[in-house]
Write a structure and sequence with these properties.
The protein is an alpha/beta fold. The protein folds into 2 domains: about 170 residues, Aspartate Aminotransferase, domain 2 (3-Layer(aba) Sandwich); about 90 residues, Aspartate Aminotransferase, domain 1. The chain has 9 helices and 9 strands. A 4-stranded mixed β-sheet has the order 1-4-5-6. Helix 3 links the parallel strand 4 and strand 5. The radius of gyration is 20 Å and the shape is globular. Bound molecules: pyridoxal-5'-phosphate. The site of pyridoxal-5'-phosphate has 8 residues, from loops.
Length: about 280
């Protein structure tokens, strides 16, 4: 919780959390002319902060999910990774949302052509069917806990570590992913073929796509993010037509299950379009 940006999610606990140093996230979208400028500022800030010895940098590679489907370019993540390495810090990639095909590669870190030191995964690990999470780390980090002295052991475990049903669901889901990579490899074009039809709507801003995730902001109402109620309204109108979406305030996004058919995706966009046209 302390790692996350201070916002509505955690502000009630503000004075209980340890301080964290943050780097701006250079979110980008289609036709964003400022992207390089934003990335340079972020890089500069990272380089300045890393002058102080830093244990680790944590980020969601390519897409900040609950933060608002904020996307960055793979080359930005690559540059960040190089700087972290050069400063002897560790890179922790939170792939809980971005992993398992979500961003158009099996893992987002692969699309960014980096190798993080630690990776957290869950959601897509079991296809979302059973709860299971894994923390992966490089061999070197793992070995640093191996010693004859119990003082070196990493003693923390969960009651349900390696739960057999969770593992079975994960294996089944991984088999499917391996067998059908097309389900996530070619998703971007599908989203774009629908989003192009939204292009003329003046209140649609910051259209962005990363693999299977598509999002845009609605420039309606004067409140941003979770404080904007337009998302709730759209959610209930969509539900009436059989489409379950969960806008993040004024950010409308589609993050469909990989088993969605082309017709179902088309219908989802059609429903959203009808709602927007009638707002
Ligand atoms: C990016 C990200 N990291 C971590 C978590 C927490 O994951 P878990 O509930 O598996 O601990 C979430 C949950 O939504 C998430 O979206």
């Amino acid at each position: 919780m302390a790692l996350g940006e201070r916002n509505i999610f955690n502000e009630n606990f503000d004075n209980l959390m340890f301080p964290v140093r943050r780097v701006p996230w250079p979110s980008t979208w289609m036709n964003d002319e400022e992207v390089e400028n934003k990335e340079n500022k972020a890089i500069q800030k990272l380089e300045t902060l890393l002058k102080t010895p830093t244990v680790a940098v944590i980020l969601e590679p390519l897409v900040q999910g609950a933060g608002g489907m904020n996307m960055v370019r793979p080359q930005f993540i690559k540059k960040v990774s190089e700087i972290i390495k050069n400063n002897n810090s560790l890179l922790i990639a939170d792939e809980v949302l971005t992993g398992f095909g979500r961003c158009g590669a099996l893992f987002a870190f692969q699309k960014a052509k980096i190798i993080p030191d630690l990776i957290s995964i869950s959601k897509g690990l079991t296809g979302g069917f059973l709860p299971m999470g894994i923390t992966l780390c490089k061999e070197k980090i793992f070995q640093s806990f191996i010693d004859d002295s119990p003082r070196k052991t990493f003693w923390h475990g969960h009651s349900f570590t390696a739960n057999p049903l969770g593992c079975a669901a994960a294996n089944a889901s991984l088999d499917l992913l391996e067998k059908e990579p097309k389900k996530y490899l070619s998703f971007e074009e599908k989203h774009l073929s629908h989003l192009i039809k939204f292009k003329n709507l003046s209140y649609i801003k910051k259209v962005r796509v990363s693999g299977t995730i598509a999002a845009f902001d609605l420039d309606i109402g004067n409140k941003k993010g979770y404080f904007n109620n337009i998302g709730k309204e759209i959610k209930s109108l969509a539900m009436e037509q059989g489409l379950f979406i969960r806008p993040l305030g004024n950010v409308i996004y589609l993050l469909p299950p990989l088993c969605i058919t082309d017709d179902q995706l088309g219908k989802s966009y059609w429903i959203i379009r009808q709602i927007l046209d009638n707002l």
